[in-house]
């Protein structure tokens, strides 16, 4: 009887040892955290010299993870991205398109001779966290590997309290005068709301008081020289409880009103 107990004990020990070894063999030495779920993306084309920089047409389609999210479709509406355009519009999911979270390849392309979208302009690989909002602002530095040049940024903000709105500023005129900075002056508040901003800079979101009666006029002024006004955005209004980005886009070498790609202030809505 004792021998039988001893034999059973040995068998149990061997089996447990084998199971432990199997578990140990399949344990990852360097666990990798993966992302899953849905992220949200907004694309803004602020590149006045896209055609010259990439030697391709500056009206293009956008793919994320191999799926076309914006562009021409047979029998559909032409919705190329081109200078000054934003995808999606504010009426679509508050200005964001849903995409899978994780590492995604963003491809810009134009139709080829034989196959639609067969000519790739450029591809970018970005990582999207689930349930997060992102903006890709296409600038003249789209070919750069730096997020700050492209500009790729996570739209992190808190819902503004009642009576306020969120606003941030992006200086996307990357060919502005070298070494020069700008201020954004608000006539409604009678002060500069953004100061000493360098090309390529992205501010954080800040809450500002909402005013249901008065609109605002914003001036781009050269820092340290209030008399030098580079651009004006007239009668702009921001709604209560909403979140916006104010951005300075276009060709920094021209300021002609008839030039559609001149340097100019513009806004877009997040939520």
Overview in brief:
The protein is mostly beta strands and 271 residues long. The protein has helices at residues 2-25, 50-54, 147-150, and strands at residues 38-45, 61-64, 67-70, 86-87, 97-100, 102-110, 119-128, 133-138, 152-154, 164-171, 182-186, 191-197, 206-209, 216-222, 225-236, 243-249, 264-269. The strands form four sheets. Strands 1, 4, 5, 8 and 9 form a five-stranded mixed sheet that branches.
Protein described:
With 271 residues, the chain is mostly beta strands. It folds into two domains: 125 residues, Immunoglobulin-like; 113 residues, Immunoglobulin-like (Sandwich). Strands 1, 4, 5, 8 and 9 form a five-stranded mixed sheet that branches. The chain has a four-stranded antiparallel sheet with strand order 3-2-6-7, with no helix packed on it. A four-stranded mixed sheet has the order 13-10-16-17, with no helix packed on it. The longest helix is centred in the first third of the chain and has 24 residues. The chain is globular. The chain starts with a helix and ends with a strand.
């Amino acid at each position: 009887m004792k021998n039988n107990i001893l034999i059973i004990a040995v068998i149990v020990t061997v089996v447990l040892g084998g199971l432990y070894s199997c578990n140990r063999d399949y344990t990852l030495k360097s666990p990798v955290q993966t992302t899953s779920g849905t992220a949200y993306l907004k694309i803004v084309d602020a590149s006045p010299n896209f055609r010259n920089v990439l030697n391709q047409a500056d009206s293009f389609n956008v793919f994320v993870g191999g799926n076309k999210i914006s562009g021409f479709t047979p029998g559909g509406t032409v919705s190329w991205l081109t200078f000054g355009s934003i995808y999606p519009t504010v009426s679509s999911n508050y200005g964001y398109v849903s995409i899978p979270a994780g590492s995604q390849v963003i491809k810009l392309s134009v139709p080829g001779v034989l196959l639609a979208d067969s000519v790739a302009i450029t591809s970018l690989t970005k990582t999207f966290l689930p349930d997060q909002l992102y903006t890709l602002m296409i600038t003249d530095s789209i070919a750069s590997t730096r997020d700050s040049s492209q500009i790729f940024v996570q739209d992190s903000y808190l819902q503004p309290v009642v009576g306020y709105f969120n606003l941030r500023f992006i200086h996307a005129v990357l060919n502005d005068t070298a070494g020069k900075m700008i201020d954004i002056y608000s006539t409604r508040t009678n002060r500069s709301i953004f100061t000493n901003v360098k090309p390529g800079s992205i501010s954080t979101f800040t809450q500002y008081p909402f005013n249901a009666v008065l609109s605002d006029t914003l001036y781009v002024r050269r820092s340290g020289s209030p008399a030098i006004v580079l651009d004006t955005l007239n009668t702009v209004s921001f709604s209560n409880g909403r979140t916006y980005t104010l951005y300075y886009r276009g060709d920094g070498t021209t300021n002609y009103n008839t030039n559609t790609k001149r340097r100019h202030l513009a806004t877009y809505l997040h939520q």
